[in-house]
Structures are given as structure tokens and as C-alpha cells.
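Input record (one chain):
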Amino acid sequence: MIKKIFHLLAIALFVVLLFLAYDFYSFIQERNSIVEQKGLQTTAALRDQVDEILSKIAAEGERLAELFGENEYSQKEVEQIIKESSLSIPEIQGVTACYESNAFSSTIDLFCPYYNKGSQDYLYVEDSYDYTKIGEGTAWYTSVRDNGKKWVEPYFAK
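The corresponding structure, as predicted from the sequence alone:
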């Protein structure tokens, strides 16, 4: 009789164990589904935010290209324009406006001020290297100049 009770108890415990294992498996599946769904929603939201930021940056680049292409500015005016442009887009570190050799002025060979929001000052790229010559670290300028506008892979500049 005691053997039958132990057998029934063992069977009941086994059934309870199977139920708990199934419940645990179902819980894990449901949790994974929720996490996957949240991940997809988050990724979509981030993609939309990045698209919005990149569209804003591209539109500002177009605006500046048109502005600089249609008008002649003094050095101070160029610096003020790129500073204002940089400050208008919180997501970027700074803005630069670079000219081909003697395109800014017949007395200035290269002119390429970069406004750095972090340090709140200007860096003159032409003081470091000739950005108009094809070579290492100049693709940001030469590739766009020679092949048209495009996004450049991020890298540390010279």
C-alpha cells in the first residue's frame, strides 16, 4: 500500500514537474518574443531619429553649398556662417568650409576654417596639410570634389 502511495506521489510530482517545465518554456518563449518586439521597435525608432538627423545635416550642407556658391564672403563672414551652422545642429561637432587653391582669394592659397563646438574655436585645416591633394586623410575633401557629394566613413582626421 505504501508503495502505491509513493508511486502515485512520484507520478503526481512528475506531472507537476512536466507542467512546470512546460510553463517555464512558455514563459521563456513569450519573454523572448516581447524582447524581440521591443528590440525591433527600438531599432525602428532609432533609425528614424538617425534619418532625421542625417536629413537635417544634408539639408544644411546643401544650404551652405548654395550660399557659398552664390556669394563672396570675407574670412570673418565665412567663420560666422559656419559657426552659426554648427550651433544650429546639436548633433554635430562642427562645420567646415573649404576652398580650392586660390578660390577664396587670389592672395590666399588655401582656406579651410573648421568651427569646433567642443572647444568653441576655429581650426584652420590648411595650416596642417594640403587637403586638396589626393592622399591619406584627404578623401573627405578630394573624393567629394572629384566624385560628388556622399557620406564618408567616420575616421580620425589628421
